[in-house]
Amino acid sequence: MNRFSFASLAILAAFAAPLVAQQTLTIDANAPAKPFPHFWEQTFGSGRAVLSLREEYRDDLRAVHAATGFQSVRFHGIFNDEVGLYDPDRRVINFAQTLGQEGEAVGKNSIYNFSYVDQIYDGLLANGVRPYVEMSFMPAKMTSDPKQIQAFWYRPNVAPPADYAKWDAMIQAFAKHLVERYGIDEVSTWKFEVWNEPNLDFWMGAPKQPTYFELYDHTARALKSVSPRIQVGGPATAQAAWVTPFLEHIKESGAPVDFVSTHVYGNDSAKDVFGTTENIPRDQMVYRSVKKVHDEIAASAFPKLPLIFSEYNASYANEPNITDSPYMAAWLPNTIRQCDGLISNMAMWDFSDVFEEQGVVRTPFYGGFGLMAEREIPKAIFNTYVALHKLGDQRIAVDSDSALATKTSNGLAIALWNYAPPTGEGANYTPENGPDAKPAGPAKEFTLKLEHAGTNVEVLRVDPDHGNVLKAYDAMGRPAWPSREQIAELRKAGAMAPAEHMKLKNGELHLSVPAHGMAVVLVSK
């Protein structure tokens, strides 16, 4: 073999070898920092209102609250008939008068019944979580069209009210009851959001936008008539839509508004969100949408209004290789990095797979939106939130698209990740095409040069081999209905991996992070 052949083989071998990305980051614990509020863990979405009465829902709520300290939860359907709030044909027997006793029965002849409303909100508050009140959907005996039923399994009515006087009266009674029960000091901390995604099939007023604006005006004014301290906002649209026309309408109508809310998902299309034909990757879509709406508010007559994305996730579909997998361990911190400074609150949809929009759950890992899978099994995304909760509330600038550096009361907390596009694209996840079947990409090698930071180091990892319950589920053969013993095994496998304890050497630390992986480095003095 001649020298040329040897050289050619060497070149081919170099190209065949897996590439390894390397980053060296210098971080000074005494460097200037800016506020870094944990806007990604203030609010979570959940399945519809009545599901909050289930014990498994409350168990998941407690687990996520313990991990994140989140403040509020948003769900659809507080006005659904299954909650029982509105029934004009209801008559309450006055037992006291029947027995000849003095007094009047509470709720006598009332068309409103707050029994389940109270149980729902009492249950949240008892667990340290406030309601984020989505005002939806239409009671059957108030609707203008009984046939306007949305496709969700629980079939909500999504038509406008037949009589806005009755809608206004219900909203006033609802708000008055909440204030009387919980006090205005408490209720004034809640957000009241008018409807859900009126630009999609959740609102069947025609034409959609002006009829939604009519609904908003009536609802906002009815709430404020009870107390001007109640916070109300909208338009709660999908695909980051309608914000500019909504604020233009508010300026013209004079209806009250305290915040702007909208939604987006990582796999929304550029056509739907921006009206373009560009291909926006999943790791950029949420940031691009947040920036768009942030700029629209800044250019409006209300430039100081807080911005809330009251729904977002990497996928609006059931894609197990996305929302059930360690892919989220890199997607989430990267999204946080990009959106910092542009938004006041981002509510992940959602915290639990106690969730029935597509019907009763058929298997623990079907691409549900939750941090917790069915039967209280933590996913990789749950552990991602556990680790990111450790970040401090002061952010230090660092020249990297794969790192967040923060100050804590006792040193530094640094998130490092290795983002790669999802493998096994689509909803048909199997061990053969899922993220554990083959590496999603090369590892990323980080060298941290830390100054004034102490020497004790703990590292929390979430990646295909740490805090990833799918690895154990695949080893079981992915049973649709795991046995009780398997459920216990999955809960254990889904737990956060124990922290790794290290020491800095000459102020440096070397870490390797696999694709679809994140490490949070805690450095203490």
Automatic annotation (TrEMBL):
Pfam families: Glyco_hydro_39 (PF01229). GO terms for biological process: carbohydrate metabolic process. It comes from the Bacteria. Residues 25-493 form the Glycosyl hydrolases family 39 N-terminal catalytic domain. The keyword Hydrolase applies. Residues 1-21 form the signal peptide. The keyword Oxidoreductase does not apply. This is Xylan 1,4-beta-xylosidase. It comes from Bryocella elongata.
